[in-house]
Amino acid sequence: MGAAVEAEQLLRLVIGMAAGLVIGWQRTVRHKNVGIRTFGLVGLGTAAVSSLFSETLHPDAASRIVQGVLTGIGFLGAGLIIRRNNDLMPHGLTTAAAIWVTAALGCAAGLGHWQVAGAATVLALVLLFLDHSVERWVAGRPPPPKELRDDGPKAD
């Protein structure tokens, strides 16, 4: 393998991992249970697996890899979703969705789609920095009373 090819492979891995680190950083800042290391590993792993097969040389294999990764990562995300006894609402949905998006970002990076990986990372961050107060404002609902707020670490 030539030096240019090896450098591009390394760049694909670094970009996949960086996308995961950025998303994980946001989850850590929000005091969620899943953070930088987990998201970084998801980005790196999916970039590594998808970079094994080039779309130009192995289009069917690349497609199958991406399909398998995005299906399989759903099981990891499902493990993050919980429902507490006293609460009808499930928790962890946003983190599960962020794990799935991170896998997609890793796949994009692994296949060399830099613009998609970069733009989607920025858009994911924008969405993740929106909080429930924006959703309540859009729905026309007031914020919950202070005594009902749970400001501690959460999976969602």
TrEMBL record:
Tell me one Pfam family matched here.
MgtC
Tell me where it resides.
Cell inner membrane; Cell membrane
Q: Where are the transmembrane segments?
A: 34-53, 65-82, 94-111
Q: Does the keyword Cell inner membrane apply?
A: yes
Gene Ontology terms: cellular component: plasma membrane
Q: How does it sit in the membrane?
A: Multi-pass membrane protein
| Cited InterPro entries | MgtC/SapB/SrpB/YhiD_fam (IPR003416), MgtC_SapB_SrpB_YhiD_N (IPR049177)
Keywords in alphabetical order: Cell inner membrane, Cell membrane, Membrane, Transmembrane, Transmembrane helix
Q: Where is the MgtC/SapB/SrpB/YhiD N-terminal domain?
A: 13-136
Q: Does the keyword Transmembrane apply?
A: yes
PANTHER family the UniProt entry points to = MAGNESIUM TRANSPORTER YHID-RELATED, PROTEIN MGTC
Q: Which family does it belong to?
A: Belongs to the MgtC/SapB family.
Q: What is this protein called?
A: Protein MgtC
